Amino acid sequence: MAQRRVFRTRVTCLGVSEDLGATAKQRALIGKIVILERKPSSGVSLILDGVAAGDLDEPVAAKVALALEGGQVFTATIEKAFPTYDEKFKPNGARLDIKVEYALEKGQPAIETERSWRCVPAAEQAPTTRSFFTKIAGVTFEGRQHIVARCSLGERLVLVRDPDNRHDKGAIRVMRLNGDDLGFIPEHVSRGDDSSGLASRMDRGEIFKCRIGSLTGGGEMSLGANIEITDANDFEELEKAPVTSAPDAGGNLTWVLVIGAVLLVAALIVVALR
Fold first, then answer.
1. What's the pLDDT tens digit per position in 110-141?
2. CA-closest candidate to residue 67, choices 99, 103, 31
3. 103 and 143 in one domain?
4. What is the pTM of this model?
5. Of 34, 73, 122, 202, which one has the greatest count of Cβ atoms within 10 A?
C-alpha cells in the first residue's frame, strides 16, 4: 500500500518577473500549483503558469529527476513567496517555498532534502547588499535646498527611522551629523510594508551607514543628492576607497558651471592687469 510522503524545499526563481514587493502579490502566489518537469540534463524545472520559473537545487533535483523518470507523480504547491533584488535594489525574481507531496510505494526510496526548508542561512532569507545608490526624496520641501547647498561630496549622513510619520509608516529620514534634515529615503527603497525593505531591516536591528555619492542640479535645476547606503560591517572598508559617484547628468552640469566661473574670473584678472 502506498504511503503519502511530503518534502519541502526553497527554489530561487529568476523567471518570476513581477515585483513581489507588495504583500498582496506575495499572498496571490500562495497555494498555486507548480509542476516539476524533468530537464534533459537530469535537472528539474519548476513550471509556474506554463513558464519555467526556476530549477530545483542539487541534490534534491537529482532524486526528483530519477523518480520522475520512473513514473513518480508529484503535486507541488507554493507555501511562501519572497521577492529578490539585485545589488541596485531592483527586483530580479523570487524565492518560493514549495511543499511537494507524492505517493511512496513499498520498496521505493523516499525523497529526502539535505536540510530543512526552514533552516535557510540568514544570508538567503533576506537580500543583502554591500552597497547601493539611491537619491534623497523631498529635497525641494521645507527649505531643504539651503541645506543641500551646504553639503559636500563624500559627507557622512545618518539614517533615522520615523515610524510615526503620518504619511508613511516605513519612513526613513536622511540627516546630516549636525541634525539638519535633508529629506527621506524613497518609498520604493524603504518599502515599509515589506520584510525585505530597508525600513523592516532597520527595525530588525540591521545597521546601515550612508554618505553622499554625488551632488546634483544647480543653475535653474533644483539641488539634489545621490547617496550610497552600505551595511555597517562593510562601511569602514569602503571608507578607504574613493567615493564612486552614481551617474547623474545634473552633477556633471554643476561641475561645468564651476569650471566656467573659474575661467571667467581668470579672464577678468588678466584684463585688469593690462
1. 887 755 444 444 343 444 446 788 899 999 99
2. 103
3. no
4. 0.43
5. 34
